[in-house]
Amino acid sequence: MTRRHLVALLPIVLGACGLVPPNHLGGIGASVSPMDYARRLCAHLDPESYSSCVSQVLDEIDLGQPDPLPAGYSTSGPFAVVMGGEVYVGDYRSNPFKADFRVSNGRNGCRGAYNAITGSADAVFDVYCDDGRSGWADVIRAGDGRNGIGKIALDDGAEGDIVFGHLPLGGLDRRRNDAL
User: Phi first, then psi: what are they for 175, rounded to 5°?
Assistant: First the structure.
C-alpha cells in the first residue's frame, strides 16, 4: 500500500473509530454573510415567521458592532444555539488558546469548552448539557474573528446550529443591559 492510499484511508479509519468530531468545520476564519447568520437563527420557525425573523437579524447586522467594543467584548459576547426547534442563548469567552460557552433555553443548559494548553488538539468544544447529553460543538469565526457560526451534535443524535458574536446577536446584549 502506498503513502497516497494510507492518506486516503486515514479519515475513514478515524471516522470508524469515532475520533473525528461530527460536522467538523475547522475552527479557522472564513467569510460569513449576513444571510448565513439569519438562516441559522431562523430555520426552526414556521414559514409565516421566517421572513420577519430574517429581517430582524439583517436589521441587527445593519446596526453593526459598537466601535470600539467595550472592555472585554473583543474576547466575549453573546452565543446562541438553535437545536431541536428551540433557541438556547448565553455567552462565550475566549482567548487564543481556550474558549468556553454557556447557553440555556430556560429549562436546560449546555456548556462547552476547549483548552489547547491542557491538550485539546483543535478548537472543537466538548459539550455537556444539564439533561445528561454530551457531544461536540465546532465553530468557525468570521473574518473579523469576533463573530461566527458553527454546528453542534449531541450523543442522542440531536444536531443544531450556532451563531455567536455582537454583530448578529447584539440585540441580546441590548436587551440584557435594558433589564439590568
Answer: -65, -40
Taking residues 98-126, what's their average pLDDT?
88
Query: Above 50 in pLDDT, residue 126?
Result: yes
Q: Which long-range contacts (CB under 8 A, 24 or more apart) does 171-175 make?
A: 171/56, 171/60, 172/78, 172/80, 172/89, 173/77, 173/78
Q: What is the pTM assigned to this prediction?
A: 0.78
Give 68's contacts (C-beta < 8 A, 6+ positions apart).
none
* CA-based nearest residue to 131, from 86, 174, 176: 86
Q: How many CA atoms lie within 13 A of 21 on its CB side?
A: 25
18-68 per-position pLDDT tens digit: 334 544 455 556 788 899 999 999 999 999 999 999 999 998 888 876 666
C-alpha cell at 14: 478515524
Q: At what angle do helices 166-179 and 47-63 cross, to 10 degrees?
A: 90
